[in-house]
Amino acid sequence: MPSILESDATGKVAEIYADIRQVLGTSIANLIWRNLATIPGALEWTWITAKPLYRGPAPGYAEAVRRAIDLPMVPSFSRDTLAAAGLSNNNVARIRDILDSYHYTNAVALVALSALVMHFEPTRQDTVKPSDGAPRPPGVKLPELPPMQSLRPEVVRLIEELNGFGEDTDKSLIASMYGHLGYWPTYLSLVRTMLRPLETNGQLHTLTRSIRDLARSHGSGLAQHLRPSTPPDSLQEALASCRRFVDHPISRMTGICSLIRRATDRPRAP
Question: The whole model's pTM is what?
Answer without folding.
Answer: 0.93
